[in-house]
Amino acid sequence: MQRRRTILETVQPAPIEFKRLARKWRSDASTIMLGWVWAGYDLLVAEILSKVDWNVAKDDLEREITELLEHRIRRSMPPITFCHIKHEPKERETRKPAPAQPPEYDLAFVCNTDERIMWPMEAKILKTDQQVSAYVKDVKNEFLTCRYAPFSDEGAMLGYILFGHPDRVFLKISQALAVKLTGHRDFPDRDHRVSSHLRKVPKNKPYPTSFRIHHLMMPLK
Q1: What is residue 104's three-state secondary structure?
Q2: Which CATH architecture has domain 16-219?
Q3: What's the pLDDT tens digit per position in 21-50?
């Protein structure tokens, strides 16, 4: 079955890769965006997470934390910049024909000049520092297949850690993905690592093959 065109596909030309577009404004776009994410997390810890009774709070944690984080990332951003933050945006570029629903990100930075171009982030609750299977599954099945982030050569995974230590999470992720995780030079004091990959790009698609994943570990207590 052939896909029909969306509204934006009828009024905008084919998107270009995110980094090339973002460089019109800033050469360090991903560092700027990730700085906003960490600033939003700091606000979330101060205003909400530090006050939570985790023996009582049990329901819908991943979605609610992401909603709360999105609001605080937005507050950390300047009023005028090259993108905006959005919770649960749809990735229509890699959708299947209707009535199938398009993929949906937990969070994404969306380019203001072409809303089809997004820099996505996926969030996962990590109940312990050993339980990373769902996290790794998203990396392999979504980011590395180009189902997520088709027009970007970077994306991020956010690990909300309930019990455990970020360093042990990084070790488990590195082992599961059989890849080295390195520190980010602009965030040396954060639980922030980066891994490099080659993606499986669908035939006749101009998506970037080389892909970097930012791994941000965010303890909840």
Answers
A1: strand
A2: 3-Layer(aba) Sandwich (3.40)
A3: 655 545 588 999 999 999 999 999 999 999
